[in-house]
Write a structure and sequence with these properties.
Length: about 170
């Protein structure tokens, strides 16, 4: 495992799930998985009827606004997430935080972010990487570790049959 010089927290989320990965020294440990309180709602944009269609028929157009219930759920989830991050910073002595989330949810996280987190926030990435392996997520945040990860993979994939000893 490539060495990370200071206690680092990787926060990887979509708008319903969040993984907190503790990266420090020679390990990647998944510390916590946080789920949204109401996962039955989706990120689907709300729809309203056009003025011509208010009488019962007519066209439906996307407004670009979220359903108010969904908006509230995302705000509550972002608030819970920030509380968990602050708790991890205090209890584990985290010195760097990296956050990845889809753009819409990332903006909610920014709105709830406290100065304590902003001070040690190293990077924000727009994207949904929740289902990726921990080592892949680390390489996304720290491309400088790509060679160390490649060397590690070469060691893991070593096979005596594929690599006979040199004479």
């Amino acid at each position: 495992m490539p060495d990370v010089d200071k206690p680092t927290l990787l926060v990887v989320c979509d708008s319903h799930h969040c993984r907190l990965l503790d990266v420090g020294g020679h390990t990647i440990a998944e510390k916590e998985v946080i789920e949204s309180a109401e996962p039955e709602f989706s990120d689907k944009q709300g729809q309203t009827r056009s003025p011509a269609g208010m009488t019962g028929g007519g066209m439906v157009s996307g407004t670009g606004d979220m359903n108010p219930v969904e908006k509230h759920r995302m705000k509550a989830f972002a608030n819970d997430l920030i509380k968990h991050i602050e708790k991890s910073i205090r209890e584990q002595g985290i010195q760097a935080v990296h956050i990845s989330a889809p753009a819409k949810f990332l903006s909610e996280i920014r709105a709830h972010m406290t100065p304590a987190i902003q001070k040690i926030l190293m990077q924000e990435i727009d994207g949904n990487f929740v289902k990726e392996a921990g080592i892949e997520i680390l390489v996304r945040f720290r491309p400088d570790l790509k060679e160390a990860v490649k060397a590690l993979r070469d060691q893991e994939n070593y096979s005596a049959k594929k690599h006979p000893p040199k004479k």
